[in-house]
Amino acid sequence: MQTYDLEANGLRGLNATLQSQSTETNQTSWEVVNPKGSHAIAVGLDAPIEVTVKGSTGYYCAGMNQQATVKVEGSVGPGVAENMMSGQVIVDGDASQYAGATGHGGLLVIKGNASSRCGISMKGIDIVVHGNIGHMSAFMAQAGNLVVCGDAGDALGDSLYEARLFVRGSVKSLGADCVEKEMRPEHLEILKDLLDRAGADASPEEFKRYGSARQLYNFDVDNAAAY
Amino acid sequence: MCGIVGLFLKDQSLAPQLGNMLTDMLITMTDRGPDSAGIAVYGEESGGKTKVTLQSPNPKDDFASLAEELGQHLGAVVSQTDNDTHTVLDVPAGQFEAARAALAEIRPSVRIMSRGEMLEIYKEVGLPKDVAARFDISSLSGTHGIGHTRMATESAVTTMGAHPFNTGPDQCLVHNGSLSNHNSLRRKLRREGVVIQTENDTEVGAAYLTWKMMNGASLGEALESSLEDLDGFFTFVVGTKDGFGVVRDPIACKPAVMAETDQYVAFGSEYRALVNLPGIEDARVWEPEPATVYFWSHNDSPTTTEKAA
Predict the structure, then answer these.
(1) What InterPro entries is this protein classified in (chain B) (predicted)?
(2) Residue B172 catalytic?
């Protein structure tokens, strides 16, 4: 276990050190102490290492992650795991707005609540939120799965493409072109796997699935007057 | 981008440290707003007098024998406490408008930063640490206070464009965001008799709340109606003589974090601003919901008043 004191040694040193770990590193386990809400902790990693942040972080924690597992023992500010490609990011507390935005792959687990715009423009990432999510979540989400064990806020899945949305609790309102869809066996299977990997104590049968009605994919001449 | 901090004490034994805690929070928010900074502190009541905080670009000349001259105009005793470019005058209660008129005559270049029984506002252009140091903010004590670090978008980088804004007795407001209907609203409020000194959007937000409260609304009610009447982006933190409130617009893209313990309620644009507060590790920390009014008052029962819009 390597320990890095962020307050004493600074952010650039942390990210340079973590980013320089090769895929064959022996230093696979890292602990970051005194994060004190700092921005951009453990960003741009590209090695199968485990980083544990001992406290809450600010903006853009674990952004652009590849391969690494980043665990935050606290809450995170806006933009956690933004544009993640692979690996895992696990947040013990809450996440602020646009968690997992534009992510292409990997798994983001938020054990508390996520606020607005969770999974906005997601492109293949899997996001599991144990609590609730805020308004405008999964806006223009293209691919991947968003699983919400609690409730969803207003305008869920507005202008949705092909991402799958699973919500156990209530949905305050659906966004444009987002509809409830049939839960088929293959969806239950995907959901069960995600809940297991995210350590979420919930049964797939309790969820509803939402997806795109695909009415915005093509121009509708009846809407010409709106342009 | 701007930075906001706020602290409302439940445990008055922390009162002597209010300025110190707010200064630390304010300086942490420097990179959200390095061009100007300001702080509003609710300190000791002035024993039935109205505290009027003034600023002058030329304090040496403007503040010389100011209390004496103003006292002669008002036919009353006025006292004066200078603090760098600011001075706090104690004028008899009910004489604020007379003092404002007299000041325009005898000291046309001074600007009124605030008035109220408890409120003092200090604000200047410059880095937050320099602004805090020149007024020795860390030595101030009080029951609650709010601060702002500014990165200007809507009006000029000047002392008068810095936050907090005071538009009514013991009221102040800081803002992160931008209002888009401030010009029409300013015209309307001026017609209603509310004094608005600048072309700044935030001052209009403050004046709007003052106008609502002048017409009988509580702080909470005024904040709730702001969600209907103000167009744009805002996270507001407001102070009154005994209260402290927070509201975010429905889109809520401007960040906000709150923390509450038995000793205080704290607000920060980011969690970073709160990390040095006592007992923060065990505080309840949360992100205020969009379009939801939160307020706390020293007058209420000791439990927190948190009201959903």
Answers:
(1) GATase_2_dom, Ntn_hydrolases_N
(2) no
Domain ranges of chain A: 2-216
- Number of domains, chain B: 2
**Residue in A38, A73, A115 to test binding to B, most B beta-carbons within 10 Å:** A115
The token duo for A167 is: 């919500």
Spell B171-180 as b/e; 16+ CB within 10 A means b. bbbbbbbebe
Q: Which of B72, B87, B117 is the last residue of a domain?
A: B117
Closest by Cβ to B255, choosing from A36, A57, A96: A96
Say yes or no: B31 and B57 in one domain.
no
pLDDT, chain B, mean: 94
Topology of the domain comprising A2-216: Pectate Lyase C-like (2.160.20)
CATH number at residue B58: 3.30.70.2540
| Size of the A and B interface in Cβ pairs below 8 Å | 44
Residues of B in contact with A96 (CB under 8 A): 255, 257, 287
The residue count for chain A: 227
Distance from C-alpha of B2 to C-alpha of A206, rounded to nearest angstrom: 43
**Closest Cβ opposite residue B287 in set A57, A115, A135:** A115
Partner A contacted by B272 (CB < 8 A): yes
Same domain, yes or no: B246 and B196: yes
The set of residues, in sequence order, having a beta carbon less than 8 Å from that of B4 and lying 6+ positions away, is B29, B146, B147, B148, B174, B175, B176, B235, B237, B256, B267, B268, B269
For B270, the domain range is 2-44+138-297
Q: Tens digit of pLDDT for each residue in B284-308?
A: 999 999 999 999 998 764 333 444 3
The secondary structure of residue A133, as a DSSP letter, is: B
Q: Does A212 touch chain B (CB under 8 A)?
A: no
Instruction: Please tell me if residue A34 touches chain B, with a CB cutoff of 8 Å.
Output: no
- Residue B261's CATH number: 3.60.20.10
Looking at the complex, does the CB of residue B287 fall below 8 Å from at least one CB of chain A? yes
Does residue B183 sit in the same domain as residue B222?
yes
Mean pLDDT across chain A: 97
Per-residue model confidence (pLDDT) at position A17: 96
Residues in chain B with pLDDT values less than 70? 300-309
Structure tokens at A17: 């050190």
User: pLDDT, tens digit, for every residue of B87-132?
Assistant: 999 999 999 999 999 999 999 999 999 999 999 999 999 999 999 9
- A58 and B287: CB-CB below 8 Å? no
Please tell me if residue A115 touches chain B, with a CB cutoff of 8 Å.
yes
